[in-house]
Design brief:
The protein is mostly helical and 171 residues long. 74% of the residues lie in helices and 0% in strands.
Length: 171
């Protein structure tokens, strides 16, 4: 469905955002190489590319803004979750480096993971709700292109997902 394809695309969009600050003398590639400005530009480009690739009609264009908003919200939510994880990991490393004992609270970890999963599910539901009106108007060519656009953005990972129920075909 459009929502699944867009959700996979949103995951890719947020991955593009999941980069730390540019290292001194960095070239911008690889892990940790993108600035916030880079991440924002990549997100804009990926969303614009997805929209352009769909070749929306004038009527479909009117249905796009809620989809874009949901994609951006999903990318932001995932980036916030990643930032929180990076902060927890940094604190853990600092404690270990200082020789402080580090105890894990497995129950708190399970609850935190559950909260993150619930937030991700909520974002995906909002994307599905936003995308449903647009999806209902897409022709088969647009649905096919959506799958290809998402696959291009993830290096082919969605191709496997589409073959196994993540695309626009029957489940």
């Amino acid at each position: 469905s459009l929502a699944l394809g867009l959700a996979a695309g949103a995951a890719t969009l947020s991955f593009a955002q999941d980069r730390g600050p540019m290292p001194p003398g960095g070239h911008g590639g690889g892990r940790g190489g993108f600035t916030q400005e880079d991440r924002s530009a990549l997100l804009d480009a990926r969303i614009a590319g997805m929209k352009a690739g769909l070749k929306l009609t004038a009527e479909q264009e009117k249905l796009w803004p809620p989809v874009e908003t949901a994609l951006r919200d999903m990318a932001r939510q995932r980036e916030e979750a990643r930032a929180a994880w990076r902060e927890r990991w940094s604190s853990f490393r600092e404690s270990r480096a200082a020789g402080k004992p580090v105890e894990r609270d497995m129950i708190a970890d399970l609850r935190a993971r559950s909260d993150r999963m619930a937030a991700a599910a909520d974002s995906m539901r909002k994307l599905a709700d936003a995308a449903a009106p647009l999806y209902a108007t897409l022709d088969e060519g647009q649905k096919r292109r959506l799958g290809a656009l998402v696959a291009m953005g993830r290096g082919g990972g969605e191709m496997r997902a589409m073959r196994h129920g993540g695309g626009h075909g029957p489940r």
